[in-house]
């Protein structure tokens, strides 16, 4: 079995499409509904490091308390932003997927294809009707 983990929000279309693409590849991932079970500080820092993203790059603005909390202000340190993300997990952008080929924020959902250690997949149709064609390109 191929170990795949998705930090998932079932209310998010991109997250749902990403999960379905993983399943379309014949993989049943470990699903972490991070709004119910937020990552620890160490886990979040590890995900950021594995993705090569800054804290701000993982910070979600839309549909969150981002503006109300004034998080656009430059005075916030990475540690402070992580604290706020852990207090308000909705501020963590999603979905984040972890596989043997790497870790990535999968926006758009077809970004997950590069992380799936499987052969080229048949076309997949997203919830909105868009068809995703797998080129077979994978991370090494």
CATH architecture of the domain at 1-34 and 94-140: 3-Layer(aba) Sandwich
Uncertain segments are none
Number of helices: 4
Pairing-aware structural class of the strands and helices?
alpha+beta
N- to C-terminal separation?
A: 19 Å
Oligomeric state of the chains present here: single chain
SSE order, one letter for each helix or strand: EHEHHHEEEE
Mean pLDDT, to the nearest integer, reads 97
Spatial strand order of the main sheet: 2-1-3-4
Radius of gyration, in Å, reads 15 Å
Estimate the global geometry from the Cα principal axes.
globular
> Portion of residues in helices?
25-40%
Percentage of residues in strands:
5-15%
Q: Considering the protein shown, what is the CATH homologous superfamily of the domain at 1-34 and 94-140?
A: Glutaredoxin
Q: What is the fold-level CATH name, i.e. the topology of the domain at 1-34 and 94-140?
A: Glutaredoxin
Describe the overall structure:
It is a single chain. This protein is α+β, with helices and mostly antiparallel strands. The relative contact order is 0.21. It contains four helices and six strands. A four-stranded mixed sheet has the order 2-1-3-4. A two-stranded antiparallel ribbon has the order 5-6. The protein has a domain at 1-34 and 94-140: Glutaredoxin, CATH 3.40.30.10. The chain is globular and about 45 Å long. Helix content is 26%, strand content 14%. The longest helix is centred in the N-terminal third of the chain and has 12 residues, at 13-24. It has helices at 13-24, 41-51, 55-58, 78-87, and strands spanning 5-8, 30-33, 96-99, 102-105, 124-125, 131-132. The model has no long low-confidence stretch (mean pLDDT 97). β5 (124-125) and β6 (131-132) form a beta hairpin.
